[in-house]
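Database export, one record per block. Field names are fixed; values are copied verbatim from the stored entry.
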Amino acid sequence: MKIVILNGSPRKGNTVSAINAFASGAKEKNEVEVLETYKLKVSPCMGCGACGCTKGCVAKDDSNFVVDKLVEADMIVFATPVYWWGVTAQLKMVIDKCYCKGALLKGKKVGMIVIGGASTDNEQYKLIKGQFDCIANYLDWKILFHKDFSASARDDLSKNSEALFELKTIGEKI
């Protein structure tokens, strides 16, 4: 299976630790590619409708490159720190641009990895999960996993062997 992981973090900390743990398990049986959303040049969706949800974006940026990667993938993993009760702006821009080929993204397998500074029973995780549940319902996505982690310092997750083992195990089972 071809798995594309969208890294929503511009930093090299907890989200990267989570991605690396998941990918180390998933790479045993799958092709895994990580896309760094902060490195992409993606303009905001203008809602022009020229794409017709199948043709791609008219913008001259990385929109079509990244959305084509998602269309080609069997599974998409969204990994993000929590920024102001939601996903990062970098990841949200990519998600918004998925509209340009939304009809081609139906039926994907997806996973979510969310890391925030608050305890995992905090509202911020529920808000992100709720948004992805709506997207998954709209696009007939099958959510294979949704994992929330609490990590305040940049290296907290890398010190959490239980969380890293859990993520690696999830990857192995994919």
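Remark 1: Residues 135 and 141 are 8 Å apart (CA to CA).
Remark 2: Strands lie at 2-7, 31-36, 75-81, 109-116, 142-150.
End of record.
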